[in-house]
Amino acid sequence: MKTILVLHTGGTIAMSADAAGNVTPGAENPLDQYQSSFGADIQLETEDVFNIPSPHVTPTEMLRLKQRIDKAAHEGVDGVVITHGTDTLEETAYFLDLTLPNELAVVVTGAMRSANEIGSDGLHNLETAIQTASSPDAADKGVLVVMNDEIHSARYVTKTHTTNVATFRTPTFGPIGLVAKQGVVFFETLLRSTVCPIQTVTDNVFLIKAYAGMGPELFDAIAQPSTHGVVIEALGAGNLPPATLPAVQKLLDMNIPVVLVSRCFNGIAQDVYAYEGGGVQLKRMGVIFCQGLNGQKARIKLLVGVSAGMSADELARFVATANS
């Protein structure tokens, strides 16, 4: 028999729609009434860690989850399932992927339809997440996201649709496994994983998206002593409008790490173009190119590295590639 710890945090999976169709949290989490269909094969231990919409989740709540899972690793459980709102689910999942060792299978899931809506996907996603967490093949895969019968790596998965139940996708690579009638099937595994255990989280790590005609104003606004890092979703392969360059240089001169990813849905940021504002110039300036992560994931990785007290060189190596 497997013991799975289920940690509820709120989100649509724990909400209900009223007569007008408005979806809100209730005084009680409807998942607390869940009755397992796994019989004697799986024993569930359930906790409500908090009950908040995912836009209310901050790195502080992510750290609380990490610390609870650290504790669970010494309590004899075989896996952990986290229910979470979908808006920031990928960020919490990736934070845990960066900060937890692969001692336990950790699976994050949620729902796109509330508990009392027609076609609610919450209970099905919860059951497939539990099924995945109990699989002997899940423990060495990093943190997983299970939605709509697909198993994704927390490192690359992202929310791609505002309301569709098939919203969670992994651009370029696809899911690493499936939950089928016959059980859990994995097709891929991560190349490698670096664990960065932290005990506190740093604030004021910002994310900025580049656009045509962008000037220095946003960069100037965050050029403060309290700023601990900046991630830029750059244009194309990794380029910025020329008017931003003096402000980016100012951040670098203040020893504020500046990380660059592409705002494109697929592909990686690269120092390809040598014109003014192109990737070649940005890399020479000292901007860190992060390959394979979207903006919100790169921000989480930068935040974790800064929270760990990494030196500038250590931080650059840590953030530069998703495959670490």
From TrEMBL:
Active site location: T12, T86
Asparaginase/glutaminase C-terminal domain mapped to chain residues: 204-317
Domain of life the protein comes from: Bacteria
Keyword field: Hydrolase
Broad class of enzyme this protein falls into: hydrolase
EC number(s) from the headed UniProt entry: 3.5.1.1
Residues annotated as domain L-asparaginase N-terminal: 4-189
Gene3D superfamilies: 3.40.50.40, L-asparaginase, N-terminal domain
Protein name in the entry: asparaginase
Source organism per UniProt: Lactiplantibacillus modestisalitolerans
